[in-house]
């Protein structure tokens, strides 16, 4: 196992991020991804889910959560696009394709 911590201070908040290698640490990256996802930081969540998959591609829940992340990301983007360009038929059609949770 090889882990190190990268701590940063952003806007008065303290964030700690662990980078680990080895299959036993895939769950740590998965849990970080879950945290980032719940906080709305989808790009960081994506990165952590991919780390988890890279370390241990044998766990189906890593794929499931990454797929769900992309679905949620698409929904968020489609909603923003329609709000910005309500006259766009293509964007309205794309937004309708995205299921609302």
Key structural traits:
101 residues, alpha+beta, two-stranded antiparallel sheet, 4 helices, 60% helix, 18% strand, disordered N terminus
Characterization of the model:
The chain is an alpha+beta fold and about 100 residues long. Helix content is about 60%, strand content about 20%. The chain has a two-stranded antiparallel ribbon. Helix 1 packs antiparallel against helix 2 and helix 2 packs antiparallel against helix 3.
Task: Report helical residue fraction.
Answer: 55-70%
Our measurement of the CA-to-CA distance between the termini, rounded to an integer number of angstroms, reads 39 Å
Low-confidence stretches: 1-19
Strand order of the largest sheet: 1-2
Number of helices: 4
- Beta strand %: 15-25%
Strand and helix order = EEHHHH
Please provide the count of β strands: 2
User: Whole-number average pLDDT?
Assistant: 81
Note the main sheet.
2 strands, antiparallel
What sort of overall outline do the alpha carbons produce when their principal axes are compared?
A: elongated
Structural class by secondary-structure content: alpha+beta
CA radius of gyration is 17 Å
């Amino acid at each position: 196992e090889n882990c190190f911590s990268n701590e940063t201070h952003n806007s008065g908040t303290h964030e700690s991020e662990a980078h680990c290698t080895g299959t036993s640490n895939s769950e740590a990256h998965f849990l970080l991804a879950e945290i980032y996802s719940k906080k709305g930081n989808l790009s960081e969540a994506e990165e952590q889910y991919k780390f988890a998959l890279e370390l241990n591609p044998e766990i189906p829940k890593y794929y499931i959560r990454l797929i769900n992340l992309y679905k949620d990301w698409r929904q968020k983007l489609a909603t923003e696009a329609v709000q910005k360009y309500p006259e766009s038929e293509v964007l309205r059609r794309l937004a309708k394709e995205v299921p609302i949770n």
